[in-house]
Amino acid sequence: MGNRLSKIYTRTGDDGSTGLGDGSRVPKDSARVNAYGTVDELNSTIGMVLACVGLDAEVQETLTQVQHELFDLGGELCIPGMAMIEDADIDRLEQVLDRFNEPLPPLKDFILPGGGMAASCCHLARTVCRRAEREVIALGRVESVRPQAQRYLNRLSDLLFVLCRVLARASGHGEVLWQHERRRKPAG
Predict the structure, then answer these.
(1) Which domain of life does this protein belong to (predicted)?
(2) Which of 40, 50, 112, 111 is nearest to 72 (CA)?
(3) What does the angle CA 47 – CA 42 – CA 97 come to, to the nearest 5 degrees?
(4) What is the pLDDT along the chain (188 residues), one digit of tens a residue?
């Protein structure tokens, strides 16, 4: 375990730099900091989903496990060369995704963000997850990143999409479907 913080501010970042987990310092707007910062933001948005009342126990358990894995992923991105996310984590996401998706009807239309508070928060988490994936890809263009990081986020965004559908249906609001016909003008 690393050092415990006894004082929250250190003033070392006042120059626009921050310390990585290996002790090196980088600009706060570096690709690495953007990647693990967005993973942290994603973890926070999943916390918003978990704060919603009436969540199914399996959804709560799944998202809590994801929060722990995202903390691990943030650590992996914060410490160059660290390996925390493994293929088994991605396999588990796929199994959970399949289990939640199996009872859902096939999609025939696009879904708009909505469907109750929990589903809406989950849609927000899904979009932040996609951004985190893009940030990890951008980091991989300039520094070494293990492929598991990108694959984990890609699979997680799929799981979050399925959970959006599950949560919208469970809320009684249902899924909000995109009405593509609304733009068509009647012939006449």
Answers:
(1) Bacteria
(2) 40
(3) 80
(4) 456 666 666 776 667 767 778 877 876 778 999 999 999 999 999 999 999 999 999 999 999 999 999 999 999 999 999 999 999 999 999 999 999 999 999 988 888 899 999 999 999 999 999 999 999 999 999 999 999 999 999 999 999 999 999 999 998 888 877 877 766 666 65
Spatial distance between the Cα atoms of 6 and 112, rounded to a whole number of angstroms:
45
Q: At what angle do helices 31-50 and 117-142 cross, to 10 degrees?
A: 160
- DSSP string over 87-130: HHHHHHHHHHHHHHHTTSPPP-S-EES-SSHHHHHHHHHHHHHH
CA-atom Rg of the chain in angstroms:
19
Q: Which domains, ranges and CATH numbers included, belong to the chain?
A: 24-176 (1.20.1200.10)
Reported residue count of the chain is 188
In whole angstroms, what is the distance from residue 22 CA to residue 7 CA? 20
DSSP string covering 2-68: -PPPSSS--STTTTSEEE-TTS-EEETTSHHHHHHHHHHHHHHHHHHHHTSTT--HHHHHHHHHHHH
Total-model pTM: 0.88
CA distance 100 to 165: 9
